[in-house]
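help with this:

***
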Amino acid sequence: MTDPVIVGVDGSASSLEAVDVAAREARLRDAPLRIVHAFGHAPGHRPSGVPPWSPVDDGLEPMARGVLADAEGRAHAAAPGVAVTRSVVAGETVEVMEIESRSASLAVVGSRGLSGFSGLLLGSTAVHLAAHGRCPLMVVRGSADPSGAVLLAVDGSDAGGAAVEFAFAEAALRGAPLVALHVWNTWSERAYEGPGDPLSAMVVDTERLREAEQRLLDETVAPWQKVFPHVTLERRLERARIRPALIDASRDAQLVVVGARGRGGFTGLLLGSVSQALLHHAHCPVTVVRGEE
């Protein structure tokens, strides 16, 4: 049996929108849907003498059951026929969802929940799961173009191979074209791009660098193009600032797929700057796929 698609709900508009998307994703995968609501006390706010993850207020559970009932109703409306289970789990949301992700094919969350601070673009649950989840994470944001392509952010990293495979599989599953976009510039080998980095900050052989980046793109997608020969693939090489270019390209996509970390960044970071930028600013849902550790 296919592992379930899981979705975290807290009653917020963002999480209910995530339920709609998760239900359709479950139907697409012929998988069951598991709706999870976690509740408990945040660190530092637990009453004295109360054990961790204990719902001391008996009124919380009926409220949670109501949230789940609403979510289940939306799931059945969005994807009739999908098998739906629901669960109230006592515990911190990020930890509960991380545990749930160990036995899921896909985790889906909204971009923000009820506990977010005004002005934040992305909730803590999404950030934590993108870095620590055990299955691909889809963060529902923006407005997906159902006729658009699946957009793959190609970075050429070893860990990014899982994202490439996932993107091809998603395009095949959806019957959608795949755009493999590799953005490069003369700072591509740096740990990160500063906001004011020019496209050419030093004297380099730009043509030789462009050819190397084209080879990287070709070599990244070639093996998977053989596995998925029916997927219509566009290889796109663009010289630009990486994060803005990918965010702009997401306007016409139905889904962006990105690895958790690329070639740049600092050793030990679990979530790179490019994936974080897309999670905060993409114009359509984003799926972060972690490679093997």
Q: What stands out?
A: The mean pLDDT is 83. The beta strands are 5-8, 33-39, 84-90, 106-110, 137-140, 149-153, 178-184, 233-239, 253-259, 286-289. The radius of gyration is 20 Å.
